[in-house]
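tool_call predict_complex ligand=zinc ion
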Amino acid sequence: MPSALDLLKTKFGYDSFRHEQEGAINAVLEGRDALAVMPTGGGKSLCYQIPALLFPGLTVVISPLIALMKDQVDALRLNGIPAAFLNSTLSTDDRTWVMNELRQNKLKLLYVAPERLLGGSGEFLQFLQTLNVSLFAIDEAHCISAWGHDFRPEYRLLARLKELFPRAPTIALTATADETTRRDIMEKLGLQKAEVFLSSFNRPNIHYFVEPKNSLTNRLGNYLEKHRDDSGIIYTLSRKSAEDLAENLDLQGFSVRPYHAGLNPETRRENQELFIKDDVKIIVATIAFGMGINKSNVRFVIHVDLPKNIESYYQETGRAGRDGLRSDALLFYGAGDVMKLKKFIQIENNPEQNTILLKKLNQMMAYGESRDCRRKLLLNYFGEETSAACASCDSCLTEVERFDGTLIAQKALSAVARLEGQYGRHYVTDFLRGSKSEKMKDEHRALKTYGAGADLPKELWLRYLKDLVGLGYLRVGGLEYPVLKLTEKSVPVLQGKEIVMLIKTAVRSQPVAPQQEDVPSEPELFTNLKLIRTNLARAENVPPYLIFSDATILELATYLPMSLEDIRKISGFGDLKTSKYGQQFISAISTYCQSHNLQTKISLKIPKRERKIK
Ligand code: ADP
Ligand code: ZN
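tool_result ok
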């Protein structure tokens, strides 16, 4: 009997397990229940796919995402693993075929939607009981919890599985980190004794950037220009802006399509299909897009409008870089969006809910305004502690020159104190500058600090106030609209006991900082090999990323394997794919190397410890 690690290599072509995979696999193999919580792209599927290969019977995978089932099954079959799915999209003939395969115990994995498994008067469950079911895997397990963001009532019925199949272990999988949801999943599924495998939510290969929204036109064009060969998603808030932006980019010659709920289903499906198959590079979408896609080579996710909360932002940006390669998450932030969203998210007659929604929006705003490490802000939001400075977000990559701004800080803080923490950044600025505007209240004109900062222009005050918030000398509070308030750190400054260093100039490094490569790759060969992949994908009628991920293609273009033995060392080349596609890639690489006078660099490839998800 092969070991789990053997199968990882022979079937999937990978050298080592990622973080929590091994533990989860072992628990299941020993017949215990497990809950695996890993971020998107973390490698949840292998946690049940490897046990499925080692168990004698069938592994039943329950998933609510019908659109993804075919993708998963195609991926397995490409690696020579007998798998199938049952859902409403199958023809009668196909369904009959699947049922026959099941009866003959020919399948290792079966993907089903919960309504198919549990629906009707339970015929399908009865049928399953006549088979040898070794394992249940419940994907997107948060759908069972009303606390999760995607509650599906039919998931509730899954509780019955434990009674009907007491001997088969269950593994529940989710990318929802929330502790309440986690406990709820275990309770509702009857997995009281399940072992929990919790991975960090850090996505080290995603680099985070925030740009001012008023530079959108310019910066977006620039960014896309530099990423012409890459796939990416641009999120907008409204259908209209998705439509307009897509048209605009199309006019500029980009390969782009819109996606939103206002399009007819036919067009929507077509646009998604083109994107998944790499025939269109950019999708401009409302949040309706993304749930049903597994495309692993999404290189950037750009938000031109502010998301409503950090959960959404994390989830949407998480669609980038499932293949583990460097990817960008870029947010265009403007305070105007906060005001717009405030109106937008309010639910009538539900003040409690509104308070929560506003609080979440304020946290999202803080992400946009902060000068702190973006990665740290995201992880802290999910309750994970991190050390500062990730070196891969705009805050960490920005060099700033500071000066002694104590006097400026004192003026600003006393203005906020005089205004009793009731006013926003613009009013505080007007107050400091002694504005004659009608909006300025008479009682404020009478205060001593009124006009104390008339020597500085408005833009500078706005910037300094933002900086003071970033440094923690002020904070943004208020529910209806953001107001500036003092903090504990304000007091020593007001008392003249602390020096405040403010930012004089900030030098931003570009969001396109090139990836650090230990061994350089051959970009031209990379492009050639991707073409070969595209052709193979067309022949098999699957998306290119299912043939090989971009990470695999990049390894080929880096280590230049020129024999079957060497190509086996490339991550993603399992037995079947090596024998089916190996030779074709070897020929292309050999030809390229001959004409460029290059030798193989396969000896430089250290059987890599999988990148740590840490
Ligand atoms: P999730 O379901 O958690 O979003 P997937 O199971 O789809 O993630 O895995 C993401 C990608 O990482 C897939 O392309 C998968 O083949 C790859 N992967 C998973 N585990 C490993 C591993 N141990 N080594 C290399 N690649 C892996
Ligand atoms: Zn950082």
